[in-house]
Automatic annotation (TrEMBL):
Protein name: Craniofacial development protein 2-like
InterPro entries: Endo/exonuclease/phosphatase (IPR005135), Swc5/CFDP1/2 (IPR027124)
Any one Gene Ontology molecular-function term assigned to this protein's record: catalytic activity
Sequence ranges assigned to domain Endonuclease/exonuclease/phosphatase in this UniProt record: 74-313
Organism: Clupea harengus
Gene: LOC122133741
Length: 423
């Protein structure tokens, strides 16, 4: 009965829905009629099958980025997480906007580590290595349950950089995220140089076949004028480019990155990521970038103004969907020769004579390996066929038959006759 009922429901559903529906059916256990029925072979078999389906469901859902449905990632400068209850507020906003990976800036946590929240999310953080250091800077990733299963590795660099790699549905392509908190425009040049040198080392070490996402509070205004940066940014930025913006754009140009926030047309309120305390000045200083090879996988980048965590920065979200180009490698098609000409005796004799002359020249050469000898023989046969009979011409069958063409001609004649009679 279980198989018959499940079969009707599973027709036309995806494999993941099959597993979920079968698991739900197995979880509805019948009440035992007599004492001791709980340990019967039927109940034990159902428990083993349920465990098997649950494990298979977990293996199916361990990949993050898919070409079938979009994945949401975001970055947010939350000013601080060094206050009670702040992580719970951020986690609730993350669930509300269905974000799989959330990059955080200015966490102000010290050292590095991983924290598992009661709601199921996980936090990978990186801060100052010294316990007595001031609670400043700090970056982190907040991962959903789906992202935790797809996590391959992560590496804390310093209080301004952290990176992580995730699996995608494509076995040869992984997703690499780099979360940044760049120095402000008024910071000393030496501090800026150290940050960008470390960032460039990370970008140099990436794999070309992977999807690279660079995001975070870059404290850089790139503006809406993309002159000289046509391959790096679009014309949908805000304001004018400053010194940090020029550094940031040059880095993106050197490592083939595209600034996503300047590509998609949105209202200004959906592009500004920071607002001054007096609510009079807005800037676009938080960014999400993707490598140019996978630019088509970036569907949208915009600000989510409804998210609130007591910060003057807005949540910047991106929608990703894996887009792959089909690679049509040319195959070695077999050459077809016009063999019908061999019905003529003269053509056959000419072909035999040509082969004999070529074989005599081959015998005069020095002894070679078996592979080279076979390659020479094959080339002789092909060249002789091309010289004597040539390639077979491919005649495509016409789409319209002869009778159809006759009918069309008759209709045209009748139409001409009708037109002449009217005049």
């Amino acid at each position: 009965m279980l198989a018959n009922r499940a079969l009707v429901k599973l027709i036309g559903q995806s494999p993941v829905k099959w597993i979920k529906m079968i698991t739900e059916t197995l979880m509805k256990k019948k009440k035992p009629r007599n004492l001791g029925d709980e340990d019967s072979p039927t109940i034990q078999a159902e428990e083993e099958m349920k465990t098997h389906f649950e494990n298979h469901t977990e293996r199916v859902c361990q990949n993050l980025l898919s070409p079938r449905q979009p994945t949401n990632i975001a970055t947010w400068n939350i000013r601080t997480m060094y206050t009670a209850g702040k992580t719970s507020v951020i986690a609730s906003e993350m669930r509300r906007y269905k974000i799989s990976i959330l990059g955080l800036c200015e966490t102000r946590w010290l050292q590095t580590g991983e924290v598992k929240l009661a709601s199921g999310e996980s936090i990978l953080y990186s801060g100052h290595p010294d316990d007595k250091a001031p609670h400043t800077e700090g970056v982190a990733f907040m991962l959903s349950k789906e992202a935790q299963r797809a996590l391959i590795s992560w590496e804390p660099i310093n209080s301004r950089l952290i990176t992580a790699r995730f699996k995608t549905t494509h076995k040869r392509i992984n997703l690499q995220l780099i979360q940044c908190y760049a120095p402000t425009n008024n910071t000393e040049e030496e501090t800026k140089d150290i940050f960008y040198n470390q960032l460039q080392q990370l970008l140099q070490a990436r794999k070309e076949k992977d999807i690279t996402i660079l995001m975070g509070d870059m404290n850089a205004k790139v503006g809406n004028d993309n002159s000289g940066y046509q391959l790096v940014m679009g014309k949908h930025g805000i304001g004018c480019m400053n010194e940090n913006g020029e550094r940031f754009a040059d880095t993106c140009a050197d490592y083939n990155l595209v600034i996503g926030g300047t590509v998609f047309p949105h209202k200004p309120i959906h592009k500004a990521t920071w607002m001054s305390p007096d609510h009079t000045t807005e800037n676009q200083i938080d960014h999400i970038c993707i490598n140019r090879k996978f630019r088509r996988s970036l569907l949208d980048v915009r600000v989510k103004r409804g998210a609130d965590a007591g910060s003057d920065h807005h949540l910047l979200a991106a929608k990703l969907q894996l887009k792959l180009k089909r690679c049509n490698n040319p195959t070695n098609t077999r050459t077809k020769f016009n063999t019908q000409l061999f019905q003529d005796i003269g053509t056959t004799e000419l072909y035999q004579t040509t082969l004999q002359n070529r074989f005599q020249a081959l015998q005069e050469e020095q002894h070679k390996s078996v592979e080279e000898h076979w390659s020479n023989l094959k080339n002789i046969w092909k060249e002789a066929c091309l010289e004597v009979v040539g390639r077979k011409a491919t005649n495509h069958k016409p789409w319209l038959s002869t009778n159809t063409l006759k009918k069309i001609e008759e209709r045209r004649t009748k139409k001409d006759t009708l037109n002449k009679s009217k005049t």
